[in-house]
Amino acid sequence: MTSLGRASAIIGAGTLVSRLTGLLRSIVLVGVLGAVGSEAADAFTFANTLPNSVFSLISVGVLTAVIVPQIVKATADADGGNAFISKLFTLGTVVLVATTAVATIAAPWLVVLVAGRAPLEAQALATALAYWCLPQILFYGLYALLGEALNARRIFGPFTWAPVVNNIVSIIGFLILGALFAPVPTKAAEWTPAMIATLGGTATLGIALQALVLLVFWRRTGLALKPDFHWRGVGLGTVGKLAGWTFLMAFASLAAGVLQGNIVSEASGSGASATVTANAWLIFMLPYSVIVLSIGTPYFTQISEHAAAGRDPEVRADISRSIRTLLFFIVAAVAAVAAAAIPASRVFTSSAPDAEAAALVLLCYLVSLIPLTILFIVQRTFYAYDDTRTPFWFTIFQCVLIVATALLAGGLYQAGVIPITMLAAAVALGQSVASTLQTIVATWLLHRRLGGLGVRTWATSIGRFAVAAIPAGFAGWGVFQLMGGAGGWTASDKIQGAVGTAIIGLVVVAVYIALLAAMRAPELKAAGGLVRRFLPGR
């Protein structure tokens, strides 16, 4: 537990700084381009989402699912995994270069896929920005290859700290855009080639530097990375078979996400659309990243080691311990974010009414935070056993539900049942429902495979956490109302929104911990040990 705690602290600190600078990046971007009703902001969101989407299709699922367990196994080779990793990186780089070239050529068609219902001017601007942004696919891929290899060698810090470089570069670029072209137009038709080059070039430069930073730390792995095009004989065939399922899984998720974005794009220029959903997801991902990734990633490496050694009882113990620890923090985060949804959303919007519209989208996403936390461990346990086929099937189940709920939301809008201002929220709620049902199915399948997961222990812990979190959340909401509610000072500006969010969050956490202490919850001791590792000098 000592090494896990130390690794969690390193990852958590890096992720926290990364996410905070990412939040600042989004705040600056909203200040320059706007959010609700801004065609320019939505166009950049469409364009900058494309490399993330294509990258997730070819790389994220494959790397997360396959690379860490395979590198852990390769370390047992006589050369410590040198040959395997060099061949793997060479093949990965070739695939990334080819995919980047094809995607850049196909930029106009990709924009139509993700923003086909947006105004034509917004689509044209998104296409121009996409030519600048799509080269990010290559740099995202290199960053992930290097980072996952470092993680597999238990070098956790660089992967989580490198995005800070990207965020700083982006912030500088957005400020330059605002200084050179103020006031930056929100109408897509008013944008010039110089504006497009400044915004798109800055975004891609940040990702490139994020990848290059990891090379500085490669020496710590003790591996000699070199080009090697002889891809036979070291197990890449096994990687390919495993990656096939995760590629199909990523493709299905991407297709579902594209449909969601296409439906939401109809609200571009009229209400909450792509930029609002992206920022709501950013807020949603802050506790997920800081808590789930920082604590869960070291557990994934340990689960992979125990699974590779065939120690199933230890795997079951890892699963139970990691989920209880994660949920201790996540349940509190759900209560805090729900209570502070409006002031938190005000940080990324231009007015109080816009904050209320964005908060509704955030709350709809928030429904799935607890299920996705459980899914993180469950899904990666399948990967640790080299089983990528089962996650494919329960992800397909989720994707079908996402498509169905997104189409339902679009149909309800077309029928006049919901206004266009609620379209994005309806799509977000559908995704949360799909993710919740996916988690239930995935947990049941893993329970069958391992002959038990200690689910009763989780349920008992969740019950304790809920008993503390519900009144804590109401306490935070009460403080929000005392500060004026939606019409008060916490929704009057971005800085006040951030301050109000911090105050509400502190109240929620204080009440939550006090109630758990009164119940003598056993999870408090373990959680306290993790928290202490984040303190200076620890």
UniProtKB/TrEMBL annotation:
<feature type="transmembrane region" description="Helical">
    <location>
        <begin position="194"/>
        <end position="218"/>
    </location>
</feature>
<keyword id="KW-1133">Transmembrane helix</keyword>
<feature type="transmembrane region" description="Helical">
    <location>
        <begin position="495"/>
        <end position="518"/>
    </location>
</feature>
<feature type="transmembrane region" description="Helical">
    <location>
        <begin position="357"/>
        <end position="378"/>
    </location>
</feature>
<feature type="transmembrane region" description="Helical">
    <location>
        <begin position="326"/>
        <end position="345"/>
    </location>
</feature>
<keyword id="KW-1003">Cell membrane</keyword>
<keyword id="KW-0573">Peptidoglycan synthesis</keyword>
<feature type="transmembrane region" description="Helical">
    <location>
        <begin position="280"/>
        <end position="301"/>
    </location>
</feature>
<feature type="transmembrane region" description="Helical">
    <location>
        <begin position="458"/>
        <end position="483"/>
    </location>
</feature>
<feature type="transmembrane region" description="Helical">
    <location>
        <begin position="420"/>
        <end position="446"/>
    </location>
</feature>
<dbReference type="InterPro" id="IPR051050">
    <property type="entry name" value="Lipid_II_flippase_MurJ/MviN"/>
</dbReference>
<protein>
    <submittedName>
        <fullName>Murein biosynthesis integral membrane protein MurJ</fullName>
    </submittedName>
</protein>
<feature type="transmembrane region" description="Helical">
    <location>
        <begin position="88"/>
        <end position="112"/>
    </location>
</feature>
<feature type="transmembrane region" description="Helical">
    <location>
        <begin position="158"/>
        <end position="182"/>
    </location>
</feature>
<feature type="transmembrane region" description="Helical">
    <location>
        <begin position="7"/>
        <end position="34"/>
    </location>
</feature>
<keyword id="KW-0133">Cell shape</keyword>
<keyword id="KW-0472">Membrane</keyword>
<feature type="transmembrane region" description="Helical">
    <location>
        <begin position="54"/>
        <end position="76"/>
    </location>
</feature>
<feature type="transmembrane region" description="Helical">
    <location>
        <begin position="390"/>
        <end position="414"/>
    </location>
</feature>
<feature type="transmembrane region" description="Helical">
    <location>
        <begin position="124"/>
        <end position="146"/>
    </location>
</feature>
<dbReference type="InterPro" id="IPR004268">
    <property type="entry name" value="MurJ"/>
</dbReference>
<dbReference type="Pfam" id="PF03023">
    <property type="entry name" value="MurJ"/>
</dbReference>
<keyword id="KW-0812">Transmembrane</keyword>
<feature type="transmembrane region" description="Helical">
    <location>
        <begin position="239"/>
        <end position="260"/>
    </location>
</feature>
